[in-house]
Design brief:
mainly alpha, 2 domains, 10 helices
């Protein structure tokens, strides 16, 4: 029977304060940092190096967490909770598992909010570009009248075909002569926008 794969939320160094705060909240004793490091399967030489460099247990715990969050493969809330359980720190493990659930829900909510915000922003940009195009199309049609060169040029500008701009460069120049300075500036700005796409 195949099991459904679950997406695992990986921790990294940016979660250092959060992990540290959760351990404090669970009344984890800083002096137990070495045992925690062993429970997290951190390499003994790395833990020995921390013990040799620092004497303050709080600093040692932070260094141990830093090593775990930057180098280990098992950087998940569950692996932290399991390590604490093996140390007989069951209340701390339970608190961490609960924190994990809350943080995942917060993360998903923030992600959905970001996506909605980006979607709204894209819609606004699209609406403004559409209204710019409408204005450009209307003003150019009014200026070009029924001149076939102007209408052909306008068609190709609106469709956004770059090669059409090259093909009809002479037509654009002719159209500019017949159009007011304001319309010519608008045409060139649109040409620049299309070329930058």
């Amino acid at each position: 029977m195949a099991m459904a794969s679950r997406r695992v939320f990986r921790l990294d160094i940016s979660h250092m304060k959060l992990v540290s705060d959760v351990l404090k909240e669970s009344h984890f004793i800083d002096a137990d940092w070495f045992e925690l490091g062993m429970g997290l399967n951190l390499p003994y030489p790395g833990l020995a190096n921390i013990r040799a460099r620092f004497t303050d247990p709080s600093q040692c715990l932070l260094e141990c967490l830093s090593l775990w969050l930057t180098s280990a493969n098992n950087r998940t809330w569950e692996s932290l909770a399991s390590a604490l359980e093996r140390m007989n720190k069951k209340p701390a493990a339970t608190l961490i598992r609960n924190t994990c659930k809350v943080n995942i829900h917060k993360y998903k909510y923030k992600l959905k909010l970001k996506l909605l915000t980006k979607g709204k922003l894209i819609n606004e940009i699209f609406k403004s570009k559409k209204s710019e195009t409408q204005y450009f199309r209307t003003s150019l049609l009014m200026k070009a009248g029924t001149d076939s060169t102007g209408i052909i040029c306008l068609y190709y500008l609106i469709t956004g075909r770059k090669e059409a701009l090259v093909e009809y460069k002479q037509e654009i120049e002719l159209l500019q002569e017949n159009v007011s300075i304001t319309s010519a500036q608008l045409l060139m700005s649109q040409k620049g926008n299309i070329e930058s796409m």
